[in-house]
Amino acid sequence: MNAAVNFQQIVLAVEAVEDPEIPITLKDLGVLRSITHNDDCIFIVLRPTKIGCPGKTRMESEIRQACSAFDPNGTVEITWEYEPWNPNDVTLSGQKCLAEYGISVREHERMMCPYCSSNAVSTMGDFGGSICKVPYHCDSCGSTFERLRSVQSAEPVKFLRKVE
Amino acid sequence: MKPQDIALALADDLFVQCQTLSPWTTNYVDFEESLAVGSIAQEILAHSGVLMDWAGLDKDQKDRRMFARRASDWKVAELSFFSADSWPELICGAYFLTQVAKITVNALMADSNENGKSLKLVHSEQLLHLSHWRRWITVLLADADTQLDVNSALRKVFDRAGDIFASSTGVIGDLKKSWIVDVKADFKQWGVALDPAAVVEKSRTTGGFNAEKLVFDLGFVRTADGSPEYSVY
């Protein structure tokens, strides 16, 4: 990395990169795991919420843009680590941000509707648009919301739907 | 057969299964289910990539394997190409293949060291997929209106499962034994009379109409020399 470049500025820029789907930073989501550097390169480690995350290329692209804004000629090495992502990796501010978008990250506590805080909720299936999300319905306010979960620790939802 | 070859064979099966599963993202009428099927198709495509990584292929080798192969060089399980005519056929075919993936990845994990972490994640996701297909089969078998359709679909899939594990000896034979045990347990629970041990073994064939169509379809993604036809980012 160029000696004139302020590494802290790059760190701040990378930490501000958001998830392509929800306006939450990759840092708050627990996807951005580390940023380090040596004289030649910046090393960034990311952890996907699931292996087939479709946003990976976009995330990489935006992180490279963030780095090049401060170090246009620098080398950036991005590594995706295959360790199980866990909802507990989401920061407190990230949890608030996700709640605004109808996503809960409560893994083991009793489920609560992120909109009205009611516990009168029921699952709508094993998973919805993504294997790392479980769809829910709030019987109190009628909202639908999702719970982010760790695939590694996921128990299949005990749920049978009667087909009409 | 070396573990790397087993991983690559499964990678091919999953890559093709993704192609046959993905149209159901829009064909099926239930929105939540369409999302789930789309998610599964996307994930098994990623699993295919992880298996190729595990087998030691680099990015260019992976691309060449999937996009620059001739139809006559494709050799996948018949069920991967299985074009389901109904929802019961789709879930039964997917159930069989997911059992295969779960058992095979589990065996490969035992053959891994540090690089087995990715397989552990694949295994976890395959278990969730399996519970999804199992749930559907359980629900439809419990309903008098759909019971016959599911039994008929299971029979149709059963008749096409002979080349999944085309040997009863060696490593493949061991995988097949595990597969029979797990499928038999589900069949017993469901009250299905079929015996997975009675699947008639047959060798995998290469080429054919399905492989020609696959190569034709992939041509829309990559050019003949394997370079990307489109660039998203």
Mean pLDDT of chain B, as a whole number? 89
Largest Cβ-defined interface: A-B, 29 and 34 residues
- Main pleated sheet of chain B: none
- Proportion in helices of chain B: 55-70%
Oligomer: heterodimer
Order of helices and strands of chain B: HHHHHHHHH
Quick rundown:
By secondary structure, chain A is α/β, with parallel strands linked by helices. Chain A has helices at residues 7-15, 26-29, 56-68, 92-100, and strands at 32-37, 41-46, 75-80, 103-104, 121-123, 133-138, 144-148. Chain B has 233 residues and is mostly helical.
Could you explain how this protein is built, in words?
The complex is a heterodimer of chains A (164) and B (233). Chain A contains 4 helices and 7 strands. In chain A, strand 6 and strand 7 form a beta hairpin. In chain A, strands 4-7-6-5 form a 4-stranded mixed beta sheet. Chain A is 21% helix and 21% strand. The C terminus of chain A is likely disordered. Chain A is elongated, with a radius of gyration of 18 Å. With 233 residues, chain B is an all-alpha fold. Chain B contains 9 helices and no strands. The longest helix of chain B is centred in the middle third of the chain and has 25 residues. Chain B is globular. The termini of chain B are far apart. The interface between A and B is medium-sized, with 29 and 34 residues.
